[in-house]
Amino acid sequence: MKSKYRHWVFVKRKKNRRTHQQRDSNACATVVIPALNEAKRIQEVVAYALADSATAEVIVVDDSSIDDTAMLARQAGAKVMTSSMLGKGVSMRDGAAAATHDLVVYLDGDLTNLRPGIVTSLCLPLLNEGADFVKARFGRGGGRVTELTAKPMLKVFFPELAHLAQPLGGIIAARKRLLQTIRFEDDYGVDAGLLLDAHLAGAKLAEVDIGLLEHDSQPLQDLSLMANEVSRAIFDRAKKAGRLHVEQVTAMYENQRQVAAGIDYVLSLRRGRRCLLLLDMDGTVTPSRFALELARNTGNEAALVQLLDTPHDDAITRSERIAELFRFIHKQQFEQVARTLEIRPGVIEFVKQARRAGFMVGVVSDSYFVAADIIRRRIFADFALAHTLTFDGEVCNGQLQINPAFLPDDVNSVTPICKSNAMRCFLTDKSQPPIELIWAVGDNLNDLEMLRLADNAFVIDPKSPKLLEEPGITLISEFSDLVELLTHEASESIEA
């Protein structure tokens, strides 16, 4: 199949040599393809885009795929770059920033059986000055989230856009200068957000019929989270446009956060993987502690240090008191600190190698999910488990919700709140096949029970000598020490 598509691109280019100047004058668009593990079809999509006379260049933004997506895309003739952070929205933004042409066309990396000339069709309204932002219309209707969530909400809050058939479709064409002025959501809300931001910016919108479209369906377990994130994006724009006058939006934000932080959703992401890698966040993935860096940024460092030095407090009481320190802090400050927190060298490569070896990789933290989820996306991990701070109108109200995954089934347990309880959730998961191999990496005593329960346990920059006295725990100086060992042992376990 690979050689077939290479041959197709070669023949197409050879055919166009006789009209090279004409092709140069027609080529007007940068085609951006965000891609995550799309080795199955990426060559076909790149070849399809390059065969369109409107295409000047193809940029594949690879979201740290663990298959051969990047290599195959490059072989097919695309420029390949790595996304600056996990998430389709970030990849779309990075691709637009790298585009060398004013017209940017987005295609999905899993498309197949496209009719010829779609890039040209999407660009025509832009070239004719009839539009600044173009959405593709395909098929008879949208998916479940489109029909049950997006369209009803648009009808209420943005009735002038209710006629759009595919408001959530990822096949888009727009002027680069417009894309540079609007916000790219990190999550499933990106397509709805771009559409509404362009509309609210006064851009002229158009919709182009591209015929039938085939692509991989969204996994069922992702639909609930997708619906929440699309709803959040639409609510957010409606509020900013003065079209929302209800307080339910706060509850909706919290619901979305709870879905992504819950153990049931995390377990649904396993999808047959039998190996698990759990990484502590503070002191392990990041040399410093998130709460301390946030306290420094908000003038609460002295108060935090005082609370940390309260050995008579139980873990829950101490966590709740620390959370109260950040009352009235805007959510953007939490996110900014998490985005700028230093990542320990070698972590990203280690996570990538672990996923290639068949591991499901998670960040497990006693800190806050609002930060842990950003850290896990920065290192391209699969999930994050942490406690949830609640926000009223994007401002922290100081209330902490302990993640139920950290609590034991037995109320008399000696570990009332512990990361090891989250690990037990995976060990008792009834999905087949069962977890067969667990690795864990930590740095402090609050990681000890998790490390004891793991098949292979490692500490980096240990904060207590007791960790090194524990049998079965190995000291590492850097994450690169683990890459070769991980790949070898994981393959042996799977073969067995």
Structural class: alpha/beta
Strand content: 15-25%
Query: What is the distance, rounded to the nearest whole angstrom, between the alpha carbons of the first and last residues?
Result: 32 Å
- Write down the overall mean pLDDT: 86
Low-confidence stretches: 1-24
Polypeptide structure, described:
This protein has helices at 2-16, 20-26, 42-50, 69-75, 88-98, 118-127, 144-157, 176-179, 190-200, 223-240, 248-261, 263-268, 290-298, 301-308, 315-325, 331-340, 347-356, 369-378, 419-427, 448-453, 466-469, 480-495, and strands at residues 29-35, 55-62, 79-82, 103-106, 133-137, 172-175, 205-209, 275-280, 359-368, 383-392, 395-401, 437-442, 456-460, 473-476. By secondary structure, it is α/β, with parallel strands linked by helices. The strands form two sheets. It has a seven-stranded mixed sheet with strand order 3-2-1-4-6-5-7, with helices on both faces. A seven-stranded mixed sheet has the order 11-10-9-8-12-13-14, with helices on both faces. A hairpin with a 2-residue loop joins strand 10 (383-392) and strand 11 (395-401).
Give the topology.
Blueprint: H1 2-16, H2 20-26, E1 29-35, H3 42-50, E2 55-62, H4 69-75, E3 79-82, H5 88-98, E4 103-106, H6 118-127, E5 133-137, H7 144-157, E6 172-175, H8 176-179, H9 190-200, E7 205-209, H10 223-240, H11 248-261, H12 263-268, E8 275-280, H13 290-298, H14 301-308, H15 315-325, H16 331-340, H17 347-356, E9 359-368, H18 369-378, E10 383-392, E11 395-401, H19 419-427, E12 437-442, H20 448-453, E13 456-460, H21 466-469, E14 473-476, H22 480-495
Parallel strand pairs: 1-2, 1-4, 2-3, 5-7, 8-9, 8-12, 9-10, 12-13, 13-14
Antiparallel strand pairs: 4-6, 5-6, 10-11
